[in-house]
Write a structure and sequence with these properties.
Blueprint lengths: L8 E5 L4 H12 L3 E6 L2 H11 L9 E5 L5 H15 L4 E4 L14 H22 L8 E5 L12 H23 L5 E7 L12 H14 L8 H12 L10 E4 L7
Parallel strand pairs: 1-2, 1-4, 2-3, 4-5, 5-6, 6-7
Helix pairs in contact: 1-7, 3-4, 4-5
This protein binds NADP nicotinamide-adenine-dinucleotide phosphate (NAP).
The site of NADP nicotinamide-adenine-dinucleotide phosphate has 30 residues, from helix 1 and strand 2.
Length: 256
């Protein structure tokens, strides 16, 4: 645990699964307190149970059920954290969805589902949390290697993740102009083994695994813990001169 940064209040959306869950564990290991947000209360409760043993003395963990695609529920999240903890040191705007139909079957509802979760949910969480973040705070947003690499059936998802990468760049400037001393960066995962990338059909899983081993230069899936470590770095004092940029955690995928 680094002495200068333990005891922070960390808000994590999508904290009940995959990358968000692993990152919650990594912050708890630092001695920080975490608030996990997701839509499914049972999944949040299971995450809380799974992480309970990692809560350090003086820290705490709680969960809050909310849909980040709705601004009224984002307000509820921020009000909850501020009422309980008084402020927010770190925001990890990580909740996202990959759930898109084939491109020619995409209707307006599907478009809204992806964009409202992956873009609107990130933008409004960040700007609603900012007034409650003391100087020295940090925001990390989850983008994706998909933002820089075309792939079939991924148009909306890729566009949403390119959008949040761009938001990070410009919001860094807006926040600097406000002289808030809050940094904002993206973490950009490649192919990470989480429930999002696991399919019910074993044949699809085998095909994806073959794609991963043949396409990713490091020849394997990334682990959620490997993304989590970059999020902790970006949010801490070790990254004190890092803002508006991204760390790509993709085993080299976007470099080929
Ligand atoms: N896995 C990868 O290979 C990969 C690669 C690049 C980027 N990413 C990005 O990384 C982030 C986390 O993905 P993951 O792989 O960890 O997926 P995951 O295991 O499916 O977790 C997604 C999390 O987001 C929550 N969530 C989804 N929609 C939400 C909403 N509208 N409101 C609140 N919470 C919501 C889910 O909980 P509920 O369903 O209960 O709401 C869950 O906790 C996403 O932004 C994803 O796009 C993942």
């Amino acid at each position: 645990m680094s002495k200068d940064q333990h005891g922070r209040i960390v808000l994590i959306t999508g904290g009940s699964s995959g990358i968000g869950l692993a990152t919650a564990g990594a912050f708890l290991d630092e001695g920080d307190s975490v608030v996990l947000v997701g839509r499914d209360t049972a999944r949040l409760d299971a995450a809380r149970e799974q992480l309970a043993g990692r809560v350090r003395s003086g820290a705490c963990m709680d969960v809050f059920t909310a849909d980040v695609s709705r601004t009224d529920q984002i307000d509820g999240v921020v009000e909850h954290v501020v009422a309980r903890h008084g402020h927010i040191d770190v925001v990890f705007a990580n909740a996202g969805t990959l759930d898109a139909p084939p491109v020619l079957e995409t209707d307006e509802a599907a478009f809204d589902r992806i964009m409202n979760t992956n873009v609107k949910g990130v933008f409004f969480l960040v700007i609603r949390a900012l007034p409650h973040m003391p100087p020295g705070g940090a925001v990390v947003v989850t983008s994706s290697a998909a933002a820089d690499k075309g792939r079939p059936a991924g148009a909306l998802y890729a566009a949403s993740k390119a959008s949040v990468r761009s938001l990070v760049r410009t919001l860094a400037l807006d926040i600097a102009v406000l002289e808030r001393r809050i940094r904002i960066n993206a973490v950009t995962p490649g192919l990470i083994e989480t429930p999002m990338t696991s399919h019910k059909d074993p044949a699809v899983n085998t095909a994806i695994k073959e794609y991963v081993t043949s396409t990713v230069p490091m020849g394997r899936w990334g682990l959620a813990d490997e993304v989590a470590r970059s999020v902790v770095f970006l949010s801490g004092d070790s990254a004190s001169y890092v803002t508006g940029t991204q760390i790509v955690v993709d085993g080299g995928l976007t470099q080929i």
